[in-house]
Amino acid sequence: MENVATHEDWKVCFSELAPGLVLFARQWVGSAADAEDVVQDAFVRFWRRNLSIKNRALLYAAVRSAALDLIRRDTRRARREAEVFGRAERSVQPQFEQLDDSQRELVAALDRLSRDQREVLVMKIWIELTFAEIAEALGISQNTAASRYRYALAALKKTFQPQ
Fold first, then answer.
1. What is the CATH number of the domain that holds 133?
2. pTM
3. Does residue 1 belong to any structural domain of this protein?
4. Is the separation of the CB atoms in 32 and 22 below 8 Å?
5. Residues 129 and 108 in one domain
6. What is the DSSP track for 79-114?
């Protein structure tokens, strides 16, 4: 299929069709931003294949295909993260042989912490990682790791302060 359209024709076509394509993509993806990304990705693929811009049905099919690719990619990533998080939760939770009242209170207080604070606290205290190692493992800065640790300790201190 020979395409004699110029780059300017593609720009005009994109500006005219993009709103409808984004609306079309929103049927499958969760957000307007994702829909815009899908449309841009599909349009670039369509353009690189040098297909005729007059073939609107094929363009909509490309958008649908790109949206479904995004869904599959997100689903696979979510499944992998759930598996890793599930294993991490089981391995990170401190286990006490016999819980006395103070240990039960500590476990309850740990459960009340945000997930971010709890994971840094557990990595620092029970796994004995440095802030640099925690930061690398979680993909955050050392300062963020240190401040989450500090906030977690402050929350625990507040819980165990005598009234």
1. 1.10.10.10
2. 0.46
3. no
4. yes
5. yes
6. HHHHHHHHHHHHHHS---SS--HHHHHHHHHHHHS-
d(CA 31, CA 161): 44
Question: What is the Rg, in whole angstroms, of the alpha carbon atoms belonging to the chain?
Answer: 25
d(CA 102, CA 96) in angstroms, rounded, equals 11
CA distances from 52 to 6, 11, 12, 91, 157 (A): 11, 13, 14, 55, 67
**Which residue is listed with tokens 């440095």?**
130
Chain centroid, CA 158 distance in Å? 32
Rounded mean pLDDT for each run of 10 residues along the chain, 163 residues in total: 55 81 82 90 81 72 87 86 69 56 78 86 82 86 94 88 65
Q: Is 78 found in the same domain as 14?
A: yes
Looking at the structure, do residues 62 and 98 belong to the same domain, yes or no? no
Residue 73 lies in a domain: yes
Q: Provide the CB-side half-sphere exposure for 36 (13 A, CA).
A: 4
Structure tokens at 62: 């490309």
Q: Residue 132 carries which side chain, given as an amino acid letter?
A: A
User: What are the Cα distances from residue 161, in Å, to 28, 121, 127, 157, 158?
Assistant: 51, 19, 26, 6, 5
